[in-house]
Write a structure and sequence with these properties.
Length: about 350
């Protein structure tokens, strides 16, 4: 008789575990872990779909911020490599000029009876062997010695620049590898979320994307999300400084623009791209990612929030918005949801900072 081995179970934590438990009680056939391609249970309620979609978007946003950090590192390394290559070219040109001078001296020596060994070494050696045997320069005096010492210094400078370029090229390669990894993760999470949304009717999908459950429930979280629709006008906002007012004003001009992961404007933004652009409009330079923006400025508590402050969410500091007062913010939520006003308590608050 053939034996049937029970499939090995995977441990689940957090939102995944809670969703799995709900599905088990509902008699779901099979649902894969978040982020993996699989077949969603067609009997999932709208609320259960929303739970899964929210988790997938949160994971995609974490990967987006990691992508942003890797892109910033890659851009910096690429600029450093370019600068070092330019520096290498300039130093090589100067070295070639020195070699031409040495060649002229050696030619004159040859015509007069023989080439000085130090000059011969300078003409025939690679940079490394010249530096190893450059003690011969000590045996030369006068103009020849000055030129040979110049050659030695230039060789050392070129070697130092070359080594620095190698380090930066390695950093660039590492950053590019991380970029590719984070991009794959982001695209995988977004595909999984889209697969779940595609199983819904247009009305159900609108409910999910607006934050409701489609069940008629009115718990606190859903009431909070309804508060996002309460309008607030720029004239109602009293920012603590001219710069904060400029940042808030910029954020208002971005309302309705699409969320695009990795985008920094002007026609689309991700969450940290929006806050960076808003404060840039106020003359303040912020770093690119949520987990670096939180340390850019004075940390403030939730009770101390003022318009213009940056508000951060989730334990991984993976989302940020711009506080505008009255418990609300302007933020770029996720793919498919345009930049909008929302209550800050619709997500788990992780901290706040006040740029200056």
């Amino acid at each position: 008789m053939a034996s049937h081995r029970k499939p090995k179970q995977r441990s689940l934590t957090g939102t995944t575990a809670r969703t799995a438990a709900t599905l088990a009680m509902a008699g779901a056939a099979s649902v894969t872990a978040f982020g993996e391609t699989g077949h969603a249970d067609p009997q999932l309620s709208v609320g259960e779909v929303r739970t899964q979609v929210d988790a997938l978007y949160e994971q995609a946003e974490q990967a987006t911020e990691q992508y942003n950090g890797a892109k910033e590192a890659a851009d910096t390394a690429r600029a450093d490599v370019s600068r070092l290559q330019d520096e290498m070219a300039r130093k090589t040109a100067r070295l070639n000029t020195t070699r031409d001078q040495i060649g002229a001296i050696a030619a004159a020596q040859y015509r007069s009876g023989g080439i000085d060994p130090a000059m011969q070494l300078a003409l025939d050696s690679t940079p490394d062997t010249y530096l190893e045997r450059a003690a011969l320069v000590d045996q030369v005096s006068g103009r020849e010695a000055v030129i040979l010492r110049t050659l030695g210094r230039q060789q050392r400078e070129i070697k130092t620049t070359h080594d620095a370029a190698d380090v930066k090229l390695a950093a660039l390669s590492e950053a590019q590898t991380k970029l590719a990894e984070h991009k794959r993760t982001i695209e995988s999470k977004l595909r999984a979320a889209q697969t779940l949304l595609d199983r819904l009717t247009a009305a159900q999908r609108a409910t999910v994307e607006s934050g409701g459950t489609g069940t008629g429930t009115t718990d606190a979280a859903h009431a909070d999300r309804s508060a996002a629709r309460v309008p607030i006008a720029p004239g109602d906002i009293h920012a603590p400084s001219a710069r904060a007012a400029q940042a808030v004003a910029f954020a208002f001009t971005a309302l309705g623009l699409p969320y695009v992961w990795g985008a920094t404007g002007p026609s689309s933004y991700d969450c940290s791209g929006l806050t960076q652009a808003a404060w840039k409009a106020a003359g303040v330079s912020l770093p690119r990612t949520t987990y670096t923006q939180i340390n850019a400025g004075q940390r403030v508590s939730e009770s101390q929030l003022q318009p213009g402050d940056l508000v951060f969410f989730y334990s991984g500091i993976s989302h940020v918005g711009l506080y505008i007062g009255n418990g609300q913010m302007i933020h770029a939520p996720r793919p498919g949801a345009p930049i909008r006003i929302a209550p800050i308590n619709e997500m788990p608050f992780a901290g706040a900072s006040r740029p200056s």
